[in-house]
Amino acid sequence: MQTFSYKPDGKVLKEFMRNDSFFRGLRGPVGSGKSVACCVEVFRRALAQKKNDKGVRRSRWAIIRNTNPQLRTTTIKTWLDWFPENTWGNFRWEVPYTHLIKKGEIELEVIFLALDRPEDVKKLLSLELTGIWVNEAREIPKSIIDACTMRVGRFPSMREGGPSWSGIICDTNAPEEDHWWAIMSGEVPVPDHIPREETRMLVKPDNWFFFTQPSGMLEKKNKDGEVQNYTHNKLAENKKNLLGTYYDNTIKGKTKSWIDVYIMNKLGTISEGKPVYQMFVSETHVSSEEIPVADGTPVYIGLDFGLTPAGVFAQKVRGRWLIQSEIVAFDMGIVRFSEILREEIATKYANCEALIYGDPSGDFRAQTDESTPFQILRGAGLRALPAPSNDVSMRIEAVNKSLMAMTEGIPSFMVDFRCRQLIKGFEGGYQYRRMQVSGERFTDKPDKNMYSHIHDALQYLMLGAGEGRSIIGNNKPMQSFNAKPEFDVFRRRPKARRNGLWARL
Question: For 279-329, how does the pLDDT look when each residue is reduced to its tens digit (9 = 90+)?
Fold first, then answer.
C-alpha cells in the first residue's frame, strides 16, 4: 500500500490532530500548515474507520470552499499535492469534483463542493457523509455549518457498522470580530446588532473546540506603543516547511490590517476598497474606557431608516464630540425601532434633552403606510427633524471636519470603544468600492454594506447638530451648551449601564 509521512510541526497542530471532538476549528496565519493538517486528518480518519464485514474501511467526506475558483486553485491543489492522481487514483473533474481512493483496505470518497454553485449547495444538503472539512471557514456563514452538522455521521450506514468517528473540521485565517468563529470561540461578546434569536445559535456546544496557532511574527513597538517593525516568532508553527525568509518577504508592501489578519493571526477586517474616513486613527479617536453621559447636556441622535435602522448617540462637551453609543437593528420597522430609542433615552439620557436628526427622505410617506417615519417618531413622543441635507459629500465632510479638529490639544472627536459597528466602519468597512478596471479607481459614493447604515446615521447627526452649517451656507451659529465645570470625560468614573430594551436584543 502507498504510504506517506506527516508529522505536525507545532504544539497546536498536534493538539488539533489528537482531539476527537465532533467539531474542531483550527485558526492560524498563512503558512502555518492548517490546510495540510486537515488533508491529513481526512485520510487519518479513513485509516481509523473500522472494517465492514468484507474487510473494507469505507468513509465519505465533503470538502467545502466558498467559491469554485478558490476550490480549484487552492483547496483541490493542496489535496492533490498530498494525494496525487498517479498514485491515489483518478480525480473526476466534472461537478461535483470527486476523488475516489481505493488502496488496500481503504475506500475513501472525497467530494469537493463550492458554495457559489447552487447545484453544489443542493448536493451538500442531500449527502450522507462521514465527515466534512470546511476550508477557510471565515468565508462560510454559520447556516452552512449548521447544515453540515446534519449531514455527517450518516456514512457508512449502521448496517455496515456505522462511522468510527464523525464530525466537522475547519481551518481559517483570522476572521472579523463579529464572525461566528470569533464569538463562539469566546474571544468577543455577541455584538449588539445581532438579533436575539440568533444569539442562541452562537453559544458554543460542549463538543466544539477551537485551536489558535501562534502568530507568524512578533511586533516590535516604540516607547509610545506604535508598531515599528516585526521579528520572527520562535513559537510559529510549520517553520520546517517554510523558507527562513518566508514571513519577511510576505509582509513587504502590506498594510498593517493585512499583516494583523494573515501574519499576526488577529481578528480584523481587510478592506479591499478605500476607507471613506482616511483621517480616522483608532489609537486617537477610540476611547479606552466607557465615555460617561454629561447630565444636563443635550444628546444628539442620528437615525437612518429602512429595514436595517441604525442610531448613533452623541454629546458635545466643551467643544468635543463624544460618540457614546450605537443601535443597529435588522428586519425592523420604525414603530418597533422608536420603542427601542425611547428605552435607550429613558435609561441612559434621562437628564438630557434629546434632539433627533434623520434621513430627510424619511419625511415622505411609504407606499404601504400613510404615516412617515418622522410622524411615527413624533407620535412616540420623540423630537425628530430631518437633517438639513441628504447630499453624501456634505454629510461626509460634516464628520471629517470634526475628525481633523483639535480642542485644547486633544482630538475633538472621540468614539466609545463599545461602538463596534461604527468603529469597524471607520477602520475600512465603510468604504469606496474598488472598480473592476485597470488602475486604482474607486466608486464616487460609499458602498452600501453592513457598515453604511450606522455611518449614514452618524452623518445625519453631525449635519443636523450644526457641523455642516458652513458647508451648506447657513452661518447661523448653533446653540452652545456647556457641561458642568466639574465634568471631565477623562477622570469621571463611568456610570453603570442599565439594561435597556435594545441591549437585550
Answer: 898 889 999 899 999 999 999 999 998 777 899 999 999 999 999 999 987
SS3 content of the chain, % helix, strand, coil (to 5): 30, 20, 45
| Sign of the CA dihedral with 224 first, then 225, 226, and 227 last | positive
What is the DSSP code (8-state) at residue 424?
Answer: H
Global confidence as pTM: 0.63
Name which residue leads in pLDDT, 428 or 59. Answer: 59
Residues 199-208: contacts with CB within 8 Å, 24+ apart? 201/142, 201/146, 202/142, 205/22, 205/23, 207/21, 207/22, 207/23, 208/21, 208/22, 208/23, 208/24, 208/25, 208/184
Distances (CA, A) of 155 to 17, 146, 503: 21, 18, 44
Cβ(402)–Cβ(280) under 8 Å?
no
Would you list the DSSP string of 350-392?
Answer: TTS-EEEEE-GGGGSPPTT-SS-HHHHHHHTT--EEE-S---H
Residue 414: closest CA among 230, 257, 285, 265: 285
The three cell numbers locating residue 398: 460634516
Tell me how far apart the alpha carbons of residues 136 and 114 are, in angstroms, rounded to a whole number.
12
Mean pLDDT taken over the chain:
87
Domains of the chain with CATH codes: 11-212 (3.40.50.300), 217-266 (no CATH), 282-504 (3.30.420.280)
Which of the residue ranges 57-66, 233-242, 494-503 would you say has the lowest mean pLDDT? 494-503
Cell 466602519 maps to which residue?
Answer: 425
Whether residue 191 is preceded by a cis peptide bond, meaning omega within 30 degrees of 0, is no
Encode 339-373: b = buried (16+ Cβ within 10 Å), e = exposed. Answer: ebbbbbbeebbeebebbbbbbbebeeeeeeeeebb
Q: What is the pLDDT of residue 409?
A: 85
> How many beta carbons lie within 10 A of that of residue 100, not counting itself?
15
pLDDT digits 0-9 by tens, 203-218:
999 999 999 999 999 9
Least confident of 65-74, 183-192, 229-238: 183-192
Cα 471 to Cα 359: distance, rounded to the nearest angstrom: 18
Q: What is the pLDDT of residue 143?
A: 84
User: Tell me, what's the pLDDT at 451?
Assistant: 84
Q: Which three three-digit cell numbers place residue 317?
A: 462637551
H-run or E-run covering 455? helix 452-464
CA angle in degrees (0–180, nearest 5) for 90-92-96: 150
